[in-house]
Design goal:
Oligomer: single chain
Number of strands: 25
Distance between the termini: 62 Å
Bound molecules: zinc ion
Strand order of the largest sheet: 6-5-4-3-2-1-22-23
Largest sheet: 8 strands, mixed
Shape: globular
Radius of gyration: 25 Å
Helix content: 25-40%
Number of helices: 17
Length: 552
């Protein structure tokens, strides 16, 4: 009976956990790694074809994106997940295969033109592999005990992160030893539009939990995204411009539609018949899946709308663009409108065409509604770029660039602690996954010290014996042994934050802002506190020494 950590260890993406019990080998999630990874994954401890089954927490690519690859390598067992996740995977895995294919073709073209690229000309997997994975999906209901095989039962609980998202309890019994493990999946944020709040788990011997926001809090002040969105739409339409919303196709797009439905119902914008376009085939398909799963996944407020005979995701003036021609037609007339399109970080997809047509127009607004990762076009625009390149053409940024705060699918530190605190019996130990070094370790420290539950942040390759409750092998990456690298990760984050800060400060240059003066003082006192001349430094020998304070 053992648990091996495979992916999303000390990082956010690439979720994958391996369990051996009752003569079976199985995975909980098999997600794709995205962006630059700080640590290497040690990979699966056995051949893909030897995996008997997979349990899937939710449809996001960082949890499901490698399932087609598993099939390509010979896996042919069932993939157990919730009804809505199975529905979403049937479109998202195909979309993922499509992206792999496009990227491989793009690399091959660039290589032809003389670019220095040596690999990546073959897609990671094909559409046929994605279809194979989709055929293996087994839909399960929430809160129902599912017998997988002799000695293994599982139960899915709605964890309120995305339509269909679940935490999974795994009940193992082998040779008279009984153990329960709870895999949290991604834990949802309370009061998200449309979907329910996270439901809690009462008991487990071991808990594997996500820690994305383990060291951060969401802003708790009065945020009203519906009113903020209404104001932005009103002002932009008044000026004769379009509101372009780059949005993730699955989840966030449906939330925005739900907000606009309420804006129209409550007549918060004076032209309540303003046109809204959803221009993303994936978003259109996902919206249909949301509508199919109203009853199992929606919260009371959205269900109340359904009971009144209203569809929470449609309203007068909504247009769904499916074909390329329909997409092109959106910018062919001058009528002010709202355009929701993917991808959410503007790296690919039809939103790039809408940016090309609208970014240079001062009367338009580009409204960001999700996280923009470092290095993406979305991030460059949010950070105040004056000009960006789209389809090889320089485009000036003259539109208003805005962000809608208060939307997050992840629980913050308080939410994560609350989720763990709801266990009626303290788990024997907790493993933090799906969080970078600082988030995961900060949360583990709290759980250890304040909640008095042993908490670990394992690295990929670590093996834990579930029967004895002891580590069989603790993996420690080379670079972690040299502590300097931990600092370098933190340092990269700090530099990125600093660059962003500079953009904000420059934007405020000609405006009176008393907060900035206060902020300057706070920054100065932080600089005093952190000046290396004023604090302890770690010497290579591990000895601590205090540097003498410089006299000025
Ligand atoms: Zn997720
Ligand atoms: Zn995730």
């Amino acid at each position: 009976m053992k648990l091996q950590f495979v992916g999303a260890n000390h990082q956010v993406t690439g979720s994958a956990h391996y369990v051996e019990a009752c003569g079976k080998r199985f995975l909980v999630d098999y997600g794709m790694e995205q962006g630059n990874m700080s640590y290497e994954s040690q990979g699966l401890p056995c051949a893909e074809s030897e995996i008997d089954f997979v349990l899937l927490t939710h449809a996001h690519v960082d949890h499901s994106g490698m399932l087609p690859y598993l099939c390509a390598k010979g896996f042919s067992g069932p993939i157990y997940t919730t009804d809505a996740t199975a529905d979403l995977c049937s479109i998202m895995l195909r979309d993922c295969a499509h992206i792999q294919l496009q990227e491989a073709e793009w690399k091959a073209r660039k290589k032809k033109r003389g670019a220095d690229i040596t690999e990546g000309f073959e897609p990671l997997y094909t559409m046929a592999d994605a279809d194979n994975a989709i055929r293996l999906l087994v839909s399960c209901h929430y809160d129902v005990m599912v017998d997988i095989c002799e000695g293994i039962r599982v139960r899915f609980t709605d964890v309120g992160h995305l339509l269909g998202s679940a935490s999974i309890e795994v009940f193992l019994s082998e040779n008279g030893v009984y153990k329960t493990i709870c895999f949290s999946g991604d834990i949802g944020n309370k009061d998200q539009p449309l979907i329910k709040d996270p439901a809690y788990t009462k008991r487990a011997d071991y808990v594997l939990m996500e820690s994305t926001y383990g060291d951060r809090y969401h802003e708790k002040s009065e945020i009203n995204p519906i009113e903020d969105l209404a104001k932005i739409i009103q002002e932009t339409l008044d000026g004769g411009g379009n509101v372009v919303i780059p949005s993730f196709a699955v989840g966030r797009t449906q939330e925005i539609l739900y907000f606009i439905k309420q804006i129209k119902e409550r007549e918060l914008v004076k032209y309540h018949d303003f046109p809204v376009y959803v221009d993303s085939p994936l978003a259109v398909d996902a919206t249909e899946i949301f509508q199919k799963n109203f009853y199992t996944c929606f919260d009371e407020e959205a269900l109340e709308m359904v009971r009144r005979g209203e569809n929470p995701l449609t309203f007068p003036g909504l247009n769904l663009a499916i074909t390329a021609e329909e997409s092109k037609a959106i910018n062919s007339d001058e009528e002010p409108k709202v355009i929701i399109s993917a991808s959410g970080m503007c790296e690919a997809g039809r939103v790039r065409h809408h940016l090309k047509h609208n970014l240079w127009r001062p009367e338009c607004t580009i409204l960001f509604v999700g996280y923009q990762a470092m290095g993406t076009l979305g991030r460059a625009i949010v950070e105040g770029a004056d000009e960006v390149k789209l389809f090889g053409e320089p485009i000036s940024v003259r539109a208003a660039i805005m962000s809608l705060p208060g939307l997050s699918g992840h629980a913050d530190r308080d939410g994560l602690i609350e989720w763990l605190d709801k266990f009626e019996e303290k788990p024997k130990c907790v493993f933090m996954v799906h969080g970078d070094d600082m988030s995961a370790e900060s949360l583990a420290e709290y759980v250890n010290k304040e909640m008095k539950i042993p908490a670990y942040v394992p690295y990929s390759g670590t093996v834990f014996n579930l029967a004895t409750g002891e580590f069989e092998y603790e993996a420690i990456p080379e670079k972690r042994k040299k502590k300097i690298f931990i600092v370098s990760d933190a340092f990269a984050r700090l530099v990125a934050a600093g660059q962003r800060l500079m953009a904000v400060i420059n934007k405020n240059k000609d405006h009176a802002n008393k907060d900035l003066a206060k902020f300057t003082n706070q920054i100065n006192s932080l600089c005093d506190k952190w000046d290396p001349d004023n604090f302890y430094i770690e010497e290579p020998s591990g000895k601590k020494s205090k540097k003498s304070k410089k006299k000025s």
